[in-house]
Amino acid sequence: MKKSNSILTLALLASISFSLIACANKKSTDHGNGVHDHSAMNHKAEDEISDVSVVETSENKSISQLIDQYLVIKNALVQDDARAAASAGQKLAEAASSIDLNTFEASKQSEIKEILEVVKEHGEHIAKSEIAHQREHFEGMAKDFMDLLAITGTDRTLYQQYCPMYDKGKGGSWLSDSQEIKNPLFGSKMLTCGSVKETISMK
To answer: How, if at all, do strands 158-163 and 195-200 pair?
Structure first.
C-alpha cells in the first residue's frame, strides 16, 4: 500500500512539474512576442518622424532657393548689372513655379500660392526689362517676400532696408543678408542711401 502511495505521489509531482514548465515556456513566448511588437512600434514611430523631417527639409530647401535668387538680383542691381539681374529674375520665376505647395501646412497653402504667383510675375518682368523697370519690380517684390517669410520662416538672418529717396521721395525697401547698406534701387548713383528697418531672424 505504501508502495502504491509513493507511485501516486511521484506521478502527481511529475504532473505538477510539467505544468510549471509549460507555464514558464508560455510566459517566455509571450514576452518574446511583446518585445517584437514593441520593436515594430518603434520602427513605425521612427518612420513617422523621418517623414516629418523630409517635409521640413523640402520646405526649407524650396524657400532657400527663392531667397538665393532674390539676393542675386539684389546684388546685380547694386552693381548696375541689368544682364545678371535678368538672368536671376528668370531663375527666381522658375523657382517660384517649382515650389511644391504640399510641403507646407494645408492652412498656409492658399496664401503662399498667391504670393508665389506675384513673385513669379515680378521675376518674369525683371528677366525682360531694362534696369529702371527691373528696380521697380524688385522694390515691389520686397513686401511680398516679407509676407512670405512671415509665413514660412527663413533659413538665414535677413535685414529689411529702406531708402527714403527712392521714387521721388516716396521711399523704397529691399531685403539683404548683410547689415551693410548697398542700395539696389539706385546702384552706384546713391549706393549707401538707406538704413536697416527690421531684422528677420531664422525660425
So the answer is: antiparallel
